[in-house]
Design brief:
The chain has about 425 residues and is of the alpha+beta class. The chain contains 14 helices and 18 strands. The chain has helices at about 5-10, 10-20, 25-65, 70-80, 80-105, 145-150, 155-160, 175-190, 205-210, 235-240, 300-315, 360-365, 390-400, 415-420; strands spanning about 125-130, 155, 170, 195, 200-205, 225, 230, 245-250, 255-265, 285-295, 320-325, 335-345, 350-360, 370, 380, 380-390, 410, 425. The strands form five sheets. The protein has an eight-stranded mixed β-sheet with strand order 1-11-12-13-16-10-9-4. Strands 5-7-6 form a three-stranded antiparallel β-sheet. The longest helix is centred in the first third of the chain and has 41 residues, at about 25-65. It binds one RNA strand of 88 nucleotides through helix 3, helix 4 and helix 5.
Length: about 425
RNA sequence: GGAGGCGUGGCAGAGUGGUCGAAUGCACUGGUCUUGAAAACCAGCAUACUUAACGGUAUCGGGGGUUCGAAUCCCUCCGCCUCCGCCA
């Protein structure tokens, strides 16, 4: 959520950047917010004046009662009725206009950082880096869903029986490969100084609002109607919410955390060849990095986190590239996002395996997550997160890029201590 | 699931209808003193909104109510503790 003070003080700039972000009618929306906010303050002042008056009378009644002037006290009571009614009226007005302001603010995405290219679609993203790993075959490579079937390591059909499409069952070497990846990623993160967190997989509504999944992505989460909870779509939600409503000491920053969790996504509206196999699932595993940092450090940290994830891909021997997402393609809540994509030679396409974002104060403003600065005042922190990494497309890439002519699949060196085997099949 | 108790500032802990945003202690910050430190003493020490400023308003787990006035009374939700039941 954008800070209202910022919208007030830097109106023109905010409108421009929202327009860059491809928000329709940005100027109109901002004007509406400012009008609502002005109205709010007008009513608030009236409300508070009345309350002050009321407090004054109440106090004087107390004095009169104490000194035994009963009649004077009763007389004072009589004049409170009108003020009381006014207070009620103003309270209602303030409540309504606050609700409206809030709703409008929720509807605005984050402002893009100045270094983010302005663009509409994925085609406008900038390729920042591409490594020189090449995967070439002397035979016709098979897509991962064929390979998984052949080696009997992923069972889609029985997953459908248990739950539905998008809930695969991993078995044997497939299950072991998953577990190896999770442990490898967690070990690496620990070495890089991230504290491992095992959060709840179910969150309440407030947490959903805190990181921005609610209200705009309500349809993408699984809702547990009976208790009003949600299944987490990513570990980002519980981990970033850990410090909601807290004021951290300066020396508590940065908070570097990582966590492995399954992720649950309804993926309503997705269909077609791009969701085949492991490309898009309703339940998948992911190790997530979250950092809560001093505002001055956040872009430095974004770079550190991204290079960290690139190192993981390098260790796995994957051909990958780094994209800087353009304004139109980066997420609602992000100020700047890098995507890392692995090239799948068999599918002949790039698969997004990680997305690393700086949210600046967009999340912390909702979370009321602040720190006390050198000036002794409270300031909003900056929050960042990134996948390190999401498993399904990594598994797909390993299967597809590491397949051998005899049909076996070579496990990347770094994973062998974790899998206990060198080849699948 | 049943019965009872409790939820106050960073922590501990007073306060059961009237200058209570809240005693006191500890912690913390600044100052005096000291060669330095400790001790002692003095001062400060929640958050948010609002105002050009003085100031004002709200917050004692959350929400609602009674009252001229609520930390204090009532309702409700949440959480914690104790006992019983059940259970991995």
């Amino acid at each position: 959520m954008l800070e209202i003070q910022k919208i007030r003080q830097e109106t023109a700039d905010v409108v421009q950047r929202l327009t860059d972000k491809k928000v329709k009618d940005a100027e109109e929306k901002v004007t509406q917010i400012l009008e609502a906010d002005n109205e709010r303050r007008e009513w608030l002042i009236k409300l508070e004046q009345n309350r002050a008056e009321m407090n004054k009378i109440a106090k004087s009644i107390g004095q009169l009662m104490k000194s035994g002037q009963k009649e004077a006290a009763e007389a004072a009571k009589a004049q409170t009725a009108q003020i009381k009614a006014d207070i009620k009226e103003y309270e209602e007005k303030v409540r309504l206009v606050e609700e409206k302001t809030q709703e409008l603010l929720y509807s605005l995405p984050n402002l893009p950082h100045s270094s983010v290219p302005v663009g509409d679609h994925a085609e406008d993203n900038e390729t920042i880096y591409q490594n020189d790993v090449k995967v070439e075959f002397s035979f016709k490579p098979q897509p991962h869903w064929e390979l998984a079937k052949k080696h009997d390591i992923i069972d889609w059909e029985r997953g459908v029986k248990l739950t539905g499409a998008g809930f695969p069952v991993y078995k044997g070497q497939g299950a072991r490969l998953q577990r190896a990846l999770i442990t490898f990623f967690l070990d690496q993160a620990a070495e890089a100084g991230y504290t491992e967190i095992q959060p709840p997989l179910i969150i309440n509504e407030t947490s959903g609002y805190g990181t921005g999944q609610l209200p705009d992505k309500d349809g993408q989460m699984y809702h547990i109607g009976r208790d009003g909870f949600y299944l987490i779509p990513t570990a980002e939600v519980p981990i970033t919410n850990l410090f909601r409503n807290e004021i951290l000491k300066a020396d508590q920053l940065p908070q570097k955390m990582c966590g492995y969790t399954p992720c649950f996504r309804r993926e309503a509206g997705s269909y077609g060849a791009h969701v085949k196999g492991l490309n898009r699932l309703h339940q998948f595993d992911k190790v997530e990095l979250v950092q809560i940092v001093h505002p001055e450090k956040s872009y430095e940290v974004l770079e550190q986190m991204t290079s960290y994830v690139e190192r993981l891909l390098t260790q796995l021997g994957m051909p990958f590239r780094r994209l800087l997402l353009c304004t139109g393609d980066s997420s609602f809540t992000s100020a700047k996002t890098f995507d890392l994509e692995v090239f799948s030679a068999a599918q002949e396409r790039w698969l997004e395996v990680s997305s690393i974002s700086n949210f600046e104060t967009y999340q912390s403003n909702r979370l009321k997550l602040r720190f006390r600065g050198e000036d002794k005042k409270t300031h909003l922190v900056h929050t960042l997160n990134g996948s390190a990494l999401a498993l399904p497309r990594i598994v797909a890439s390993i299967l597809e890029n590491n397949q051998l002519e005899d049909g076996r699949i070579a496990v990347p060196e770094v994973l062998r201590p974790y899998t206990g085997f060198e080849f699948i099949g």
